[in-house]
């Protein structure tokens, strides 16, 4: 069974103006990936949203794993 992605799988740390260090933790393996994200519209759509879209969470996850 595939586990759904959640905003609780991410940790956000402010790094500087327009930059966040985002850490994604896999809910299954507990493995972590981190990246510095400067895409503020994506941060607004995930971290600063009451109900982030799954598409935005998947994009953020991909950036963490490939960054």
Task: Please explain how this structure is put together.
- The protein is an alpha+beta fold.
- It contains 2 helices and 3 strands.
- The protein has helices at 40-46, 54-66, and strands at residues 10-16, 19-25, 32-37.
- A 3-stranded antiparallel β-sheet has the order 1-2-3, with helices on one face.
- Helix 1 (40-46) crosses helix 2.
Model regions low in confidence, pLDDT < 50 over at least 5 residues: none
Shape: globular
Rg is 11 Å
**Secondary structure tally, helices:** 2
Structural class: alpha+beta
Distance between the termini: 27 Å
Give the strand content. 25-35%
Indicate the percent of residues in helices: 25-40%
Spatial strand arrangement across the major sheet: 1-2-3
Give the overall average pLDDT. Answer: 92
Spell out the helices and strands N to C. Answer: EEEHH
Assembly state (oligomeric):
single chain
Number of β-strand runs: 3
What profile does the largest beta sheet have? 3 strands, antiparallel
Briefly, what is this?
By secondary structure, the protein is α+β, with helices and mostly antiparallel strands. 30% of the residues lie in helices and 30% in strands. Helix 1 (40-46) crosses helix 2.
């Amino acid at each position: 069974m595939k586990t759904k992605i959640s905003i609780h799988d991410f940790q956000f740390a402010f790094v500087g103006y327009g930059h966040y260090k985002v850490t994604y933790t896999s809910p299954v393996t507990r493995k972590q990936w981190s990246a510095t994200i400067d895409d503020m519209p994506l941060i607004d759509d995930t971290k600063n949203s009451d109900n982030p879209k799954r598409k935005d969470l998947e994009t953020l996850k991909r950036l963490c794993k490939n960054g």
